[in-house]
């Protein structure tokens, strides 16, 4: 069974880092009551928002680690599988629990290596043929439990990812408004929505500096 949490997560990234592409700024206008326009390059902000990128990398690394660990689950017996399922979903494991999980992962991976080695043999003894049948039966019987565990872990990762995205997009929007007020802008538009405006002020670099300080 192929486990691809990282691939499934990456397909759910925000189309744009920011949830909106137009900010109306409530601030005192200039004496001539003119409209002062600011622009924000959302692509540049997304690339330069290092705290956001770092937070996303932590989640992606976790997904990649789970992909590797779950390979062992296919070849655990019922008791081992039940224990594995309890331990793998725990956010904070004790040292003893981590030792137990590591042992289960090793057992499953050792059996996987054994199955591959036996399957690759041109000729096998009766005992080896019997062992292959045992391992293949175990692999097949774990299908439903594996799917349930994958769904549980994926939901947990997606919840964490969405919460993290909201945290950093909300912060970015707050900073956009703060920078715009400081520059006495009336409105801020996404750079992709502006063809040309002689009086527009690009605030992207200022926003990047501020969001990475928080």
List the defining traits of the structure above:
214 residues; alpha/beta; 4-stranded mixed sheet; 4 strands; 63% helix; 6% strand; elongated
Structure characterization notes:
With 214 residues, the protein is α/β, with parallel strands linked by helices. The chain has helices at 5-10, 42-48, 50-70, 78-88, 95-119, 126-141, 143-182, 204-211; strands at residues 22-24, 37-40, 187-190, 201-202. The chain is 63% helix and 6% strand. The protein has one domain. Strands 1-3-2-4 form a 4-stranded mixed beta sheet, covered by helices on one side.
Count the helices. How many?
8
Kindly provide the radius of gyration, computed on alpha-carbon positions and rounded to a whole number of angstroms: 26 Å
* Parts with pLDDT < 50 across at least 5 consecutive residues: 9-20, 27-32
Briefly note the structural class of the backbone.
Answer: alpha/beta
Overall body shape: elongated
Strand content: 5-15%
Outline the secondary-structure elements.
Blueprint: H1 5-10, E1 22-24, E2 37-40, H2 42-48, H3 50-70, H4 78-88, H5 95-119, H6 126-141, H7 143-182, E3 187-190, E4 201-202, H8 204-211
Parallel strand pairs: 2-3, 2-4
Antiparallel strand pairs: 1-3
Helix pairs in contact: 2-8, 3-7, 4-5, 5-6, 7-8
Quick rundown:
With 214 residues, this protein is an alpha/beta fold.
């Amino acid at each position: 069974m192929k486990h691809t949490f990282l691939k499934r997560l990456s397909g759910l990234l925000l189309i744009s880092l920011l949830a909106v592409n137009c900010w109306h700024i409530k601030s005192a206008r200039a004496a001539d009551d003119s409209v002062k326009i600011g622009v924000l390059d959302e692509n540049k902000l997304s690339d330069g928002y290092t705290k956001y990128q770092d937070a996303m990398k932590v989640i992606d690394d976790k997904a990649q680690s789970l992909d590797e660990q779950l390979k062992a689950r296919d070849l655990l017996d019922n008791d081992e599988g039940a224990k594995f399922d309890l331990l793998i979903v725990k956010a904070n494991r004790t040292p003893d629990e981590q030792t137990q999980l590591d042992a289960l992962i090793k057992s499953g991976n050792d059996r996987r290596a054994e199955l591959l080695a036996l399957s690759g043999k041109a000729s096998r003894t009766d005992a080896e043929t019997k062992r292959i049948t045992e391992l293949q039966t175990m692999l097949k019987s774990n299908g439903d439990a594996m799917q349930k565990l994958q769904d549980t872990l994926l939901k947990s990762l997606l919840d964490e990812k969405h919460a993290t995205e909201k945290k950093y997009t909300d912060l970015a929007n707050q900073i956009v408004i703060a920078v715009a007020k400081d520059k006495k802008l009336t409105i801020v538009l996404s750079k992709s929505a502006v063809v040309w405006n002689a009086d527009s002020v690009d605030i992207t670099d200022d926003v990047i500096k501020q969001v990475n300080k928080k």
